[in-house]
């Protein structure tokens, strides 16, 4: 790929990443619709899979919209991070580094929510967010595989013509 194309892809990725970060900060810390209002008490869960299990068991009582919003929302909101990290930094092309970075970001968000008493600090959110980051990385890897496969095909056709 030409340097110009790589530059454009990275520039667009940075712009989208900044927009993504602004949206994440809003939804995670300021969205009243998602219950991000100051509280007088700490809300936290440190036992893995407790909230996930509760949402699955009581999905009829809670409503499928809220169950999907919580479970799938936590996964989907970190998928872009898992996809964009390897695009922005060649050092983060390993699934282990992307997983660690997504987990670190999620733990940071949960600790800020705990300290600020906005929302709740939940270990299940860390699990779901990290899973979303991994799925985002898998999407990145699939896209890279397809791109490389098409590039190889294109190069083979060029070589045959010579």
TrEMBL record:
Task: Name the Pfam families on file.
Answer: VanZ
Q: Where is the VanZ-like domain?
A: 17-142
InterPro entries noted in UniProt:
Teicoplanin_resist-assoc, VanZ-like
Keywords (A to Z) from UniProt: Membrane, Transmembrane, Transmembrane helix
Question: Which residue spans traverse the membrane?
Answer: 7-29, 65-88, 95-115, 127-147
From the Swiss-Prot or TrEMBL record, give the protein name. VanZ-like domain-containing protein
Q: What organism is this sequence from?
A: Butyribacter intestini
